[in-house]
Amino acid sequence: MMKKLIFPLLFALAACATPQPADPGIETPVLGEGGCDADMLGYLVGQDINEIDVDTLPQPRRIIPPGTAVTMDYRADRTNIELDEDDRVVRVYCG
Predict the structure, then answer these.
(1) CB atoms within 10 A of CB 56
(2) 65 phi, psi to nearest 5 deg
(3) Do the Cβ atoms of 94 and 36 come closer than 8 Å?
(4) What pLDDT shows up at residue 28?
(5) CA-CA-CA-CA torsion sign (84, 86, 92, 95)
(6) How many CB atoms neighbour CB 66 within 10 A?
(7) Nearest to 36 by CA among 71, 62, 55, 54
(8) 61-64: strand order across its sheet
(9) Does the pTM of the predicted model rise above 0.70?
(10) For every residue of the chain, which 3-state class applies, written as one string?
(11) Could you report the per-residue pLDDT of 62-81, keeping only the tens digit for each?
């Protein structure tokens, strides 16, 4: 009877194991070097998107007009630029 209880408990404990740390050989993105530059682009808030040379903004970027559906995937290196009904930037954030 005891053996029947031990194996399921060990299986459950193994599923709750702490994940291993990331491989130290893999570098994490650094702001300004492939990372998201949202804090450096805060000056865009309030500006008309049509007056901004979007080609100079870092990649990857996503410009989000109001009411637009966006994916929920999180990308630490992506800069999101959210617009209002007047095409003015209301928010710049990472993700």
Answers:
(1) 6
(2) -70, 160
(3) yes
(4) 43
(5) positive
(6) 11
(7) 62
(8) 61-64, 79-83, 89-94
(9) no
(10) CHHHHHHHHHHHHHHCCCCCCCCCCCCCCECCEECCCHHHHHHHCCCEHHHCCHHHCCCCEEEECCCCCCCCCCCCCCEEEEECCCCEEEEEEEC
(11) 999 999 999 999 999 999 99
Residue 38 buriedness (CB in 10 A; 0-12 / 13-18 / 19+): buried
Domains (range + CATH), the chain: 34-95 (3.30.10.10)
Nearest Cα residue to 86 out of 57, 61, 63, 66: 66
Q: What number of other Cβ atoms are within 10 A of residue 1's Cβ?
A: 4
Instruction: Spell out the residues 6+ positions from residue 5 whose beta carbon is closer than 8 angstroms to its own.
Output: none
pLDDT digits (tens, 9 = 90+) for 13-44: 454 444 445 455 544 444 455 578 899 999 99
